[in-house]
Structure formats: C-alpha cells, structure tokens
Write a structure and sequence with these properties.
Pfam families: ABC_tran, BCA_ABC_TP_C
Bound molecules: adenosine-5'-diphosphate, magnesium ion
Largest sheet: 6 strands, mixed
GO molecular function: ATP binding; ATP hydrolysis activity
Protein name: ABC transporter ATP-binding protein
Organism: Neoroseomonas soli
Number of helices: 10
Keywords: ATP-binding, Nucleotide-binding, Transport
CATH class of the largest domain: Alpha Beta
Radius of gyration: 19 Å
C-alpha cells in the first residue's frame, strides 16, 4: 500500500486556451488532512473538480489508491470511496434532515433511489441515520425540513450525507464559505472529528481554518503549485506572501 492515496502527474486544464490548472503534481498522504489554498482565481476549484471527475483534464493523470482514475466518472470514483461533499447536491430541501441522510444511506447500499421500498426497510436505515446526525450535531434538527435549516447547519447536513457513503477520502470545497464565526468553529471541529481514519482534501479560503486543520498544504497560484509544506513553512515563504498580497490579506480578518 503506497503512502500516497491520491496522486496527480502533470494535471492540466485549459478553458479555450486559458490554462486554469497548469502541470500540477499533487501527492496526498493517506490519513492526512491536506489543504489546497491560494488566492482567488488560483485554480483551486478547477483542480477540485478534476480530482472528483466533474471536469476532464486536458492533460495529465490522476491515480487514486493505486489505480488510474483519469477516465472515470464521478459516480465510479465515489464507489471507490473518493467522495466529494456536496457531490450529491444532496440536500433535498423538502425532505426532513433525517430523510436526507436516509436517502444517502439507501444510495450507498442500493445505488439508486428507491422510494418505494417497504416501510420496514426504510426504517432499518433510521438508526444509522440518527447516528450520523448525532455525529454532526444535528440530532435536534432531525424532523425539520432541510430547507428550514440555518446555513451553517446545512453544511453539517451535507457532511452527514457524505459520511453516509462511508468515504475513504473526502474532498471539501470551502466548507466554511459564507459562515459566521460560530459556524466556522463548529465545522472545523466537525471536520477534525470525521477525518479520523480517513483522508481529507480541503480547499479552503480561511487561513485560520487551514492552519488549525491541515497536516500538509499545497499553495496554488495562477494554476501552478507555488509552495508546499506544513502551515508554518508555506506561511513564511516569500512567494506565498507575495501571491496573497494585492489580492487579499492572508488573515482570518479577511474572511469571517
Ligand atoms: N468553466 C470555465 N471556463 C473558463 N474559465 C474558467 C472556468 N472555470 C474557471 N475558469 C477560470 O480559471 C481560473 C481558476 O478558477 P478557479 O479554479 O475557480 O479558481 P479558485 O477556485 O482558486 O478561485 C479563473 O481565472 C477562472 O476564471
Ligand atoms: Mg474556488
């Protein structure tokens, strides 16, 4: 078993001649929380979409758990345990919080939505769904419709629906975007908790979140890898400081 669970070689994505991701070699170690950061427009989301197979690369390869997944579809890599949170745009606003998690559990077992199964079978998912809600701190919200949840709690629900798929590796794109300070704190401890025994790739804007969570960080700028290392190492890299200057201050204050 290789130390790296996800690796890219020469990963490149062009949009009509514009190179959004340029010859990126990533190596993500098993069991770590790996941060992908960089100023706006650096190519983080494009890279994320390549890794989760929502975009097909122009060039380069992606290997997951020893296998070439470059040509695979999102659902295929999800079945291998590489799961993107919000992949499912999983939250059905008119279903309750509990029902949303139950639907994800059904999907992970059966691969399809079978709303027409006997009640007895549906109820068998309830116990597991309630456990997952407990894990993400949503027990008190179980019977609310998902649409009624406050924003920060929706993100927690999305993480619960992701966990229902029992991922080996989770990819999260800016899980704290647009959150209040309290919600950010809650999601950070949630990510720390659910990362146990898993690998997490975290695309994140809020550098306080990154410094608190990530074991290893890759800094992208203009589509290329600018620096790598732990937070202290990349934060004192002059190229990183320069890349962030003029776009945004690399402090928590810039993002609430
Ligand atoms: N579908 C697309 N078509 C054309 N250009 C795109 C597309 N998606 C992203 N880009 C461009 O690629 C660059 C990187 O974007 P993105 O990956 O969203 O950056 P980040 O997430 O780091 O802010 C930006 O200049 C963006 O305008
Ligand atoms: Mg982005």
């Amino acid at each position: 078993m290789s130390d790296a669970i996800l690796e890219t070689a020469g990963l490149t994505k062009e949009f009509r001649g514009f190179v959004a991701v340029n010859d990126v070699n990533l190596s993500i170690r098993r069991g770590t929380i790996h941060g992908l950061i960089g100023p706006n427009g650096a190519g983080k989301t494009t890279c994320f979409n390549l890794l989760t197979k929502f975009l097909q690369p122009t060039r380069g390869t992606i290997r997951y758990d020893g296998r070439d997944i470059t040509g695979m579809k999102p659902a295929e890599v999800a079945r291998l345990g590489l799961v993107r949170s919000f992949q499912i745009s999983a939250v059905f606003p008119h279903l309750t919080v509990l029902e949303n998690v139950r639907v994800s559990l059904q999907r992970s077992r059966g691969g399809s939505f079978d709303f027409w199964r006997p009640d007895s079978i549906l109820r068998s998912y309830d116990a597991r769904a309630r456990e997952l809600l407990e894990d993400v701190g949503l027990s008190a919200y179980a019977n609310l419709t998902a649409g009624e949840l406050p924003y920060g709690r929706k993100r927690a629900l999305e993480i619960a629906t992701t966990l229902a798929l029992d991922p080996v590796m989770m990819l999260l794109d800016e899980p704290t975007a647009g959150m209040t300070h309290d919600d950010v704190g809650r999601i950070v401890s949630l990510i720390r908790r659910v990362s146990a025994g898993r690998t997490v790739l975290l695309v994140e804007h809020n550098l306080t979140v990154v410094s608190g969570l990530c074991d290893f960080i890759t800094v992208l700028a203009r589509g290329r890898v600018l620096a790598e290392g732990d937070y202290a190492t990349v934060a004192r890299n002059p190229d990183v400081v320069t890349a962030y200057l003029g776009t945004e201050a690399p402090t928590e204050a810039a993002h609430g």
